[in-house]
C-alpha cells in the first residue's frame, strides 16, 4: 500500500528507497523544476509583451475625396471673370472654337454616294452605329442605371487629387514646387524650393496644412519659432526673413495615411496670400527586366528576345505551314499555340508549346492564354494562316521597339492578290453626357517616326504586331469576345471573295473587317496606355482563302461555320453591348 512521503532532503529519499519503499522522489523533484521553469517563462513573456511597442491601427476611408479645406480653397480661388471685361466686345473664331470639347457628342455618318464597285475602298465613307441597340428596349433603362453606377465607381477609383485644377495667383510672394514632389507611402521627404520673398513687415510667418501627412523640420534655425511640428498643420515665424527662408529649406513631409497611389494637396499660406501644390504619394515603379543574354551592337538575338504566339482552330494544315515558314528563318524561336479545337491534334516539335483549351472558347481567350505563357521581352502575334517570307524581318521590329518609346509596332500583311495592308487606325473619344461618349475610328496615322521613315505612330494596327510582353499582358484581351471579334459578316461572307476589299453590297474581305472588329477592342482598351506604331517594310504573307464553294474541304466548311457568324447573332450583340456598357460608348463612327 503506497504512502505519501514528504521529501525534506535527498538523504531522506535515499533512505526510504533503501528501506524498500517505492517512492518516486526523483519524479517529484523534476515536476517541481518544470513548474518553476513554466512560471519563469510566463513572467518573461508578460514582460516582453509589456515592453513591446504596440502599433495602433486606424480606420481610414480609402475612397477618393479631396481634403475639405483643399476643395473649398480651390473653389474660392478659381478666377471669376473680371467684371470690367464683361462689356468689352469680342469675335469668336469658329475654326478654333469648334475644336473645344463641349461634352456633348453625336455620331453622324456620311450619306451614301454612288454605288460603284470598290467605291468604299477608294473613297471610304464614314458610317455611324448606335450601340444601345444591342439591348432590348425593355432592358435599356436598367442597363443605363447599372452603367451609371459602375461609371461612378470607376471615377472614384481612377481620380486623384492631382486631377484638381490649381490656378496660381498673380505676384504671390510664396515660392513653392509646382510639380515633381513625390514620396513613397509612409515615408519622409524634404520639400524642395520653399521660400518667402521680401515683404516689409515686422514678423514673417508661413503656415502649412495637409490631409494625408505631417510636417516637421529636419534642422532648427535660430530665431525661427516652429509650432505644430509633427502635425498636419505647422507654422513658422521669424522677425528675420533670411532665417525664415533658411528654415524653409529643412521642411519635411511624412505620409501618415497609407495609400499605394494618391496625392496630398498642401496648402501654403502667408499673410494675404495662399498657394497649393501636390505631393504625389506612390510606390516607385518596380522594374520588370528581361535577361536576353550577351549584348552585341551588330545584331539581335531574336530567340532570346521574341516569342511567337498564335491561336488556332481546326486549321492544322495552315498552322503547320506557318510553323514550317517560321523555321526557315528562325529555327530556335519559341512558338506558343493556343488551341480550342473540338478534337485537338498533337502539334509537336522543338521550341513549340501547344496549349489545349475548352472547345470553342474563343479567339480573345486564346490570345490571353498564349500571351500569359510568354517569358521573353517581346511577343509577336500572328494568325495561324500567315506565312513567313524573306521580308518578315523581325529584327527590324525589334530595333524599333528597342530604340523608341513605342510599346507595340505592327507590320504589313500581303494577300494572295498582292495587296499589302497595314490597317493603321486613329482612335479618338469625344466626351458625351449621360448617354456616354462617342468613339471615332479613322484610317490613318499621326506622324512619321524620326529615324524610321517607313514607320508611323498610330492607335491601331493589323493583326501582325510585335509588342512588349508586359504591356500586352497589362491591357489583356476580353475573353467575352469570341470569334466575332476576328471576322463577322454582313449579309453573308463568301469564301471565294478576295480578302482585303469591302464591297458595297455588304460582302467584306477578311483583312478589312479584321481591322475594324478584331483590332478595335484591344486597341480601345489600350488607348492611353499603349504607344502604338506601324512599319510597312516588315511583311508577312496571308494564306489564300480564295476558294470556290465546290472546292472547299469538310474542314473548311466546318471552320467557316464557326468563323463567320451572321451579323445578327448573339456574338455581335455581345460585342456592341460591351462597347456600350464596359467602355461607356453610346455610338461608333468609322470609315
Automatic annotation (TrEMBL):
It comes from Triplophysa tibetana. Its main location: Golgi. It is found in: Golgi apparatus membrane. This is Beta-1,4 N-acetylgalactosaminyltransferase 1. Belongs to the glycosyltransferase 2 family. The chain crosses the membrane at residues 34-52. Keywords: Disulfide bond, Glycosyltransferase, Golgi apparatus, Membrane, Signal-anchor, Transferase, Transmembrane, Transmembrane helix. GO terms for biological process: ganglioside biosynthetic process. Residues 308-472 form the Glycosyltransferase 2-like domain. InterPro entries: Glyco_trans_2-like, Nucleotide-diphossugar_trans. It is a single-pass type II membrane protein. One of its GO terms (cellular component) is Golgi membrane. GO terms for molecular function: acetylgalactosaminyltransferase activity.
